[in-house]
Amino acid sequence: MATIDRQTATLALAHALAAAGRGLPVFPLSATKLPALRSPTTASSRRSTAGRVRLPGHGVHDATTDPAAVRALFAAAPRATGYGIACGRAPHRLIGIDLDIDTAYGNDSVGALQQLALQHLFTIPPTVTVLTPSGGRHLWLTGPADTPVPNSAGRLAPGIDVRGSGGYLVGPGSVTTHGRYRLAPRHRPPHPRPPCPPRPAPPPHPHRDAPPGTLTSETPPGPPGRGPDPLRPGGPRGPAQHPPVLGRLPGLRTRLRRRPGRRPHHRRHPHGLTEQEARAAIASAERLTRGRK
Asked: Which of 77, 87, 167, 268 is the most buried (most CB within 10 A)?
């Protein structure tokens, strides 16, 4: 029997240290769900208090998240079989909704809570749920930062108790005279997480992010001294950068742009040959081609 008790106390300490690592203040409990350390009311403790040496034994006020202090509390309470979690304290400001199940009197605390949600237009959020040995459950919620939530028993509805500031909940993994407290499936206690680092910016796309007319590693270079290829989207188009065919005979470009019904003029075009000179050049090229055939 002593071996079982020693193992139970060791497991209780391990669960308490895990909860303290998640930012939940804990202290040892006995199998009756009461604080495992007695209140320091002896004469020696009064002298220690007068000498400003605080001894443990103050129940929920002993709760701490310091691992060394948690080990000291359990060392002073070797018969502890569980641990309590102080409610209403930073950083989580835990508030417990205790839903009791009383089959003898037919209390349906779960249905009563759902009825309250319908009447007051609020939603019961999915949260950490601890199953009690008697068939009830504890719902873990976060309380407001500026308003303390008091403890109450049956005030909201029969079978619904609230554990707020100054109260405590029996932690999951604790063993009592009625059985073990367990986490409901797919529920885990809260854990403080560091902020996620920002995602690195994606590398710039060679064409999408480059300014118009900018050469990139994937842009084929144009002719020397002509700048970017004028046929590519975003490339500049100037007087000396015409499409390949029309750029060689500017006079033909003038002819193609002439409006219908307008008489041709023989004035020299400022950008190249006149229309008459262009026709003569084409006719000469045709005669040379027929002679070669």
From this structure: 87
